[in-house]
Write a structure and sequence with these properties.
five-stranded mixed beta sheet; alpha/beta; Nucleotidyltransferase, domain 5; 2 domains; disordered N terminus; 14 helices; TIM Barrel; seven-stranded mixed beta sheet
């Protein structure tokens, strides 16, 4: 019999190691957190973009606050305050019973914006005590905030630690801002690493489940990551997420503009395999935006396969977070995607997809490439709901196999989806009955 692949071993090890030594409550939390468990793909997470400031500069990062067409960390469509974040959570949660995790991952650093971060977490905790709270941080300011995070009920924490050697660190971090001083070079790297490791140790002792993210940068830290894995494991980390460097020059990062390449799939797999000796590896990371909403399942990330459409039924809703269907198709900047669940016979929230608004009035609509990008965003859906839609985009969507629907204009999204679910269920049962009758004959 063939032996399992390194990734299969890693996934099995992750599942076993993350469950064996924890109590029942912690096991249940892991089982419903899509970043910590690959088996939790049916659950959704929500990133609230309330933290624009950052206290370090990374050579692989370029934050953007009004970007809808890039999918990577540090990018959002717009910044929110805590009140807007609570409002968005409340709206999405009503329509997404599978939303189990709310996190703050930027677009800067959650703990470089402590007041807004803590206010947002407190508001979410009061609104829904059952939702799991998590944050992502570079770790520079973690140690002094561990007690507050624990008191707020943060039980999952992600720290990005790219090295434990200052000589390597100064090649990744041009500067940090700590204790009201800007530090550079090796001094900055030394201080950052010290604070990261201290914060990790304190957070683990406080009972948090700590995941460590590491960006794999060929010829800079690729030979060193196994040492990082061993060290963070010794300090209490539970999961290691080794991510490939995103080095597209169009993103405007220092590494990207200066020709630093990202790793090959083989290089990434090799490093993950070496590090799996020390601790469980996360292999399903999507390197999400700081305003990402939805599920992390592999199925959702894969290109649409027309042959599988009979088993997957998605509805896109033109929405800016409203409870009712009010938007003109050409005016939307975001689609909420819902997938029909056979077991519950209802539509479950899957994710939110950002698009660039292409129509600004009768005489001002976007270029063909812009329209095409919008259509492609929902090409894997079977239906799109909006308040109005022009005849030209209507016909283009039909060519793609997407049915435009304005029958529910100005009606609640929840009741509209319920009606569509009932109709789809009836149609599915009718089709299955005909199929069974055919085979009986």
């Amino acid at each position: 019999m063939d032996s399992p692949s390194p990734e299969a071993k890693s996934d099995e090890g992750t599942k076993d190691n993350l469950h064996h030594f924890f109590n029942k409550q912690t096991q249940d939390n892991i089982a419903k957190h899509p970043c910590y468990s690959k088996q939790a793909h049916q659950y959704a997470r929500m990133h609230l973009p309330v933290a624009p400031a950052c206290n370090i500069q990374c050579n692989y990062c370029n934050r953007k606050y009004d970007c809808s067409n890039e999918s990577r960390p540090g990018v959002v469509s717009h910044i929110m305050d805590s009140a807007a974040a609570l409002k968005q959570f409340s709206i999405i949660k009503k329509r997404a019973p599978n939303l189990t995790v709310v996190g703050i991952a930027g677009p800067g650093d959650a703990l470089a914006n402590p007041q807004t971060t803590f206010k947002t977490l407190l508001d979410i905790r009061k609104a829904n005590p059952n939702v799991q709270l998590c944050i992502s941080t570079n770790g520079l300011a973690l140690a002094e905030h561990v007690t507050t995070l624990a008191a707020l009920g943060v039980n999952h924490l992600t720290i990005t630690i790219n090295c434990i050697d200052a000589d390597i660190g100064e090649k990744i971090y041009p500067w940090i801002f700590y204790n009201r001083k800007r530090l550079k070079g090796r001094i900055a790297a030394t201080m950052l690493i010290e604070r990261q490791l201290l914060g990790l140790e304190l957070a683990a002792k406080a009972g948090m489940l700590v995941k460590v993210n590491t960006v794999l940068i060929p010829s800079i830290n690729d030979h060193h990551i196994a040492q990082v894995s061993e060290k963070v494991k010794s300090l209490g980390a539970t999961l290691h997420n080794i991510m490939p460097l995103i080095s597209d020059p169009s993103h405007g990062t220092y590494f990207g503009l200066n020709g630093q390449r990202g790793p090959t799939d083989e290089e990434l797999e090799h490093v993950r395999e070496k590090c799996s000796v020390h601790m469980p590896q996360m292999t399903h990371c999507k390197q999400c935006r700081a305003d990402a909403i939805g599920m992390l399942s592999d199925e959702n990330a894969a290109p649409c396969d027309p042959s599988s459409q009979s088993s997957v039924y998605r509805v896109a809703v033109a929405s800016h977070g409203e409870t009712h269907i009010r938007l003109h198709f050409g005016h939307t900047e975001r689609f909420e995607i819902y997938q029909y669940d056979q077991q519950s016979q209802q539509f479950l929230f899957e994710e939110s997809r950002n698009v660039a608004q292409y129509c600004h009035g009768q005489l001002s609509c976007g270029e063909e490439t812009q329209k095409g990008a919008l259509f492609n965003t929902i090409a894997d859906c079977q239906m799109v709901l909006s308040a109005r839609i022009g005849i030209t985009p209507w016909r283009e969507l039909e060519k793609l196999g997407v049915a435009p629907n304005v029958d529910f204009a100005f009606q609640p999204i929840s009741s509209s989806l319920e009606a569509i679910a009932k109709q789809y269920c009836r149609e599915t049962e009718h089709t299955e009955a005909k199929h069974e009758l055919f085979h009986q004959q």
